[in-house]
């Protein structure tokens, strides 16, 4: 069903209101920004027939660029005086002249934009990991709240279920709040998708409230309809997020600590040939940094420094022998 102009106007105004109170700007600039965004919004809202895959949320970059203009105009004051809530810990496909680098502080009000082939990994408070896929636009609202304007994000709030670690991802299609979990949220201006790898995610919008459990994924349509499906913990849909895993700090850490991290990031169960091997891994200390390596490359690198052990990475498990 095609949207009316009034419906598009209302949705666009809601979208631009995500920016919050705006600084004073000239009528000419405001009308040009509004007109550019409105044109792209109408084009993107035209009825089409297509099949969406959960892990490939396509965001028209002309639209994303217009949205960023609108949000930056609205948040120029907030961005300059925001509170520090995290740090950039890994990047993919980001060039040296992009204006962002590993170690940069992330503040409330900051807008994070990626294009195709890029990705960002942010360490938030309480060891919460926020990862931003390519073709995405995200605004940092607080240490425990972000607004996904378009694209896809992944959140890992830790292995333990603590209320203070909960983080909420807002979109125009609804909000997703985690309960000690790993989950992904995608939004493409037509649908909101949520997939849960571990734990539980509570979803709410103007029409309903419901929960999504580990191994489930849902797609919420603009008309309120919800499609459900299953997703495995090692499904390839998680690969982009695994590639942006925060580096593991080997300082004063054991081989067992590292293997638990690798198991959590890959979604593969950790298995030992015997209790003796497990206890030995607990006592073995790591002494070589593995910064900048992918998870599987890090596993290979670590085991070169502990020759007494061997490992096998299967489809759903990592098995350790001695």
In brief:
With 322 residues, the protein is of the alpha+beta class.
Q: Percent of residues in helical segments? A: 25-40%
The number of helices is 8
Low-confidence stretches: 22-26, 39-79
CATH topology of the largest domain: Jelly Rolls
- What is the average per-residue confidence, as pLDDT, rounded to a whole number? 80
CATH class of the largest domain: Mainly Beta
Number of domains: 3
Secondary-structure arrangement, i.e. CATH architecture of the largest domain: Sandwich
What's the total count of β strands? 16
Largest sheet: 13 strands, mixed
Looking at this protein, list some descriptive labels.
single chain; 13-stranded mixed beta sheet; 27% helix; three-stranded mixed beta sheet; Phage tail protein beta-alpha-beta fold; 33% strand; 3 domains; 8 helices; 322 residues
Walkthrough of the structure:
The protein is of the alpha+beta class. The chain has 3 domains: about 5-75, no CATH class; about 80-235, Jelly Rolls; about 245-320, Phage tail protein beta-alpha-beta fold (3-Layer(bab) Sandwich). The protein is built from 8 helices and 16 strands. Strands 1, 2, 3, 4, 5, 6, 7, 8, 9, 10, 11, 12 and 13 form a 13-stranded mixed sheet that branches. Strands 14-16-15 form a 3-stranded mixed sheet. Helix 2 packs antiparallel against helix 3 (about 60-75) and helix 6 (about 255-265) packs antiparallel against helix 8. It is globular and about 55 Å long.
């Amino acid at each position: 069903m095609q949207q009316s102009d009034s419906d598009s106007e209302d949705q666009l105004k809601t979208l631009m209101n995500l920016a919050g109170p705006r600084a004073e700007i000239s009528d000419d600039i405001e009308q040009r920004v509004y007109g550019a965004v409105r044109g792209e919004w109408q084009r993107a809202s035209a009825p089409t027939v297509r099949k969406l895959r959960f892990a490939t949320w396509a965001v028209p970059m002309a639209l994303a660029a217009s949205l960023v203009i609108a949000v930056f105009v609205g948040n120029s004051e907030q961005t300059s005086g925001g509170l520090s809530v995290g740090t950039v810990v890994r990047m993919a496909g980001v060039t040296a002249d992009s204006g962002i680098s590993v170690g940069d502080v992330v503040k409330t009000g900051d807008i994070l934009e990626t294009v195709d082939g890029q990705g960002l990994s942010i360490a938030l408070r309480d060891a919460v990991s926020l990862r931003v896929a390519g073709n995405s636009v995200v605004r940092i609202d607080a240490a425990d709240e972000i607004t996904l304007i378009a694209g896809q994000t992944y959140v890992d709030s830790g292995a333990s279920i603590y209320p203070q670690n909960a983080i909420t991802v807002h979109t125009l299609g609804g909000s997703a709040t985690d309960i000690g979990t790993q989950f992904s949220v995608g939004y493409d201006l037509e649908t909101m998708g949520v997939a849960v790898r571990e734990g539980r995610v509570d979803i709410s919008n103007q029409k309903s409230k419901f929960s999504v459990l580990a191994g489930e994924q849902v797609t919420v349509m603009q008309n309120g309809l919800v499609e459900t499906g299953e997703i495995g913990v090692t499904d390839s849909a998680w690969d982009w997020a695994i590639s942006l895993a925060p580096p593991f700090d080997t300082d004063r850490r054991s081989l067992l600590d590292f293997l638990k991290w690798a198991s959590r990031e890959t979604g593969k169960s950790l298995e030992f040939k015997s209790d003796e091997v497990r206890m030995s891994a607990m006592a073995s200390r790591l002494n070589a940094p593995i910064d900048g390596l992918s998870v599987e490359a890090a596993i290979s690198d670590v085991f070169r420094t502990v020759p007494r052990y061997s490992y096998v990475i299967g489809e759903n498990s990592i098995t350790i022998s001695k």
